[in-house]
Amino acid sequence: MAGLVKGTPVRLSDRVLRVTQDNPGMFTGPGTNTWVIGSASGPVFVLDPGEEDDRHFDAVTAAVGDRQVEAVLISHLHRDHWPLAPRVAERYGAEILAFSEQPPFAAGRLTDGERLSAEGATMVALHTPGHASDHLCFLLEEERAVFTADLVMGWSTSIIAPPDGNLNQYMASLERLIELGKGGGIEVLHPGHGESIRPPLDRIHEIHRHRQQRTDQALEAIAADVATIPEMVARIYADVDPKLHGPAAFSLRAHLDALVEEGKVVETEPGRYAPAA
Questions:
Q1: Which is catalytic among the residues 48, 53, 80, 150?
Q2: Which of 102, 119, 121, 239 is the most buried (most CB within 10 A)?
Q3: Does 3.40.50.2300 match the CATH number of domain 212-275?
Q4: Total-model pTM
């Protein structure tokens, strides 16, 4: 598989070009991946154009070339994925499509299971909430490839920040991909940040186990009368760089919210937890 190169279109298959934006960071890893999906000569989809930036706009338009853009697709509304979309859409006279009912741009609304076609490239929108309530993955049927945005990445686990992030929904979304991948239904994952992932199910199962482990650790901490989120972060994430403890607290809150939803713990006062009676 082709290595990660910033600012230059990299062809991964007959239908998939990746353009990685030079916007590295704690939440973007090496940068946001923009995807140009379609045949070499026919119309294409542009998925997640990334942040507003002249150099990235030039790289994306170079990847598209003189082909028609069937639609600009947005995986979710976190700002590292969409701000360049209106500019790309205007350049090619294309519609922007997203799941959100109130996007900050003019857009059509995608629904779960909706199929989009562009001469040999069939994209199926999969509503996969958890990281964000409006999160979509996209299945490229002809290549059994899933564009996972921030649901599954190889270099990191996803941040789940309530109230929009929800752990129970996130786990259900992982399980949906696991079910889709049974019997070879998925060959490769193309994430929103970082390298593409093969074999796909190994990584999805790994993330699912990791989230369950964090839930178990939260239950163990509460049973030991470690009752607040800062105390739990210090205990559970003791081997993690303290600079990451802030994002870890967001994810831990998602685990605690899930446990409250399931009736396994109670929030006795804001930010303080105890085992359910």
A1: 80
A2: 121
A3: no
A4: 0.94
